[in-house]
Amino acid sequence: MTALGVLAGALMGCVLLIWVINLIRHGRLYVGYGVIFVFGTLLAIAVLLVPRLLDAVTSASVALVPVPSLSIGAIVIMLFLLVYVFTQITILSNRIMHLTQELAIRGAQRQSRTQPETGEPR
Amino acid sequence: MHMPPGRRSLIAIPAHNEAATIRDVVGRVRANLPDCDLLVVNDGSSDGTAAMLVDSGALVAEHICNLGYSRAIQTAVLYAARAGYDRLITLDADGQHDPEQVRALIAEFDREQLDVLIGSRYVVSRTYAGVPFGRRIGMQLFSRLVAVTAGRRIYDTTSGLKVIGRRAFEPLTQWHFIDFHAEALVYLMRLGFRVGEFPVTVVERRHGRSMYSTISLFKYPLKTLLMLLLGVIQADLTRRRAS
Q: Is the Cβ of A73 closer than 8 Å to some Cβ of chain B?
C-alpha cells in the first residue's frame, strides 16, 4: 500500500471513529453496537500504521481473496451504511424504551394512589 | 406508614426472573424498613416474578419487555424524582443484600452529606480475595480507572446496594449508562457530586442466574471502558457549559 493509501485509510478511520463516538455520546447509537465499530476501527488504523502488520494482513488477504483493491471502497461504504442502519435501530429501540419506562412509572403512580399506605400489605 | 420528618426514602429493587427470591426480599425490606416506600421494577420477567409481587405490599413498575439493569434503575430514579423522594436506595432482588444494613448506610449518607453512597464489599479489606480471577482483574482495573479519571478510588464499583441523593437524580436520567457501575460513578464525580463507600456484607446468590453471561465477560469491560471515557468528556462539557 502506498503512503497516500495509508494516509487516506487512516483519515477515513478517524472520520468513522469521530462519527460513531458522537452518535454514542448523543444516545443515537447503542454502545453495544458502537463498541464493535470503535475497537474495530482502532484495530484497522493500527494495522494501517504498522508496516509489518500491514504487509502480513495484505499478503494474507491477497492469498485468500484475490480481489481488486477498489473493493476496499465498497467495504468502506458498507461500513458507513451499517453504522447508519444501527443508528436507526437504536433510535427505534430508544423510543420503545422510553414508552416502556413511562408505562411502568404511570402504573406505579396509579398503584401508589390506590394504595397510599405502602408500608401495610393489602 | 411512618416517615421520618423531612426526608423521604424510596427503596428500589430491579428484578428480572427472580421469582424464587423476590417475595422474601420484599418481606425482609418491609420488616426492616417500614418507614421507607418500596418499588420493585419488574424488568420484563418471564418466570412468574409479577405473580409473586401481587399483594406483597410493594409498588410495582412493570416493564413490558426486558430493558436491562441500568434502565430498570433509571425507571426507579425517574419515579423517585417525580414523586419527590429525597433518597433512593437500590437493592438486588436475589437476596444478596441484607436490608438490616440499609439503616447504617442511610445514617452515613446523611452524616457525610453525600450524593451517592455505595454499600461496598471491598472497602475494608481492599483486596478482592475469593472473587474469580477474570472478575477480579476487571474489578481492579475499573477501580483504578475510577481513581485516575475521577481522582478518588472506589473499591466496589459493581455493588448493587447504593443510596442515591435527590441532587443526583437529574444527571442519572440524562446520561446513559451500561450498568450504573464505574461509568456512572466517574460521570457523577466529574460533575462534582460526592461519592462514598461504606462497608457491607453480602451473602452468595442461591437462586436464579447472574445477569452476566460468558460473552458479557468480554463485552462488559469494553462497553464500560468506552462509556467511562465518554462520560469524562460529557461531564467536562456539561460543567463547561454550566460555567
A: no
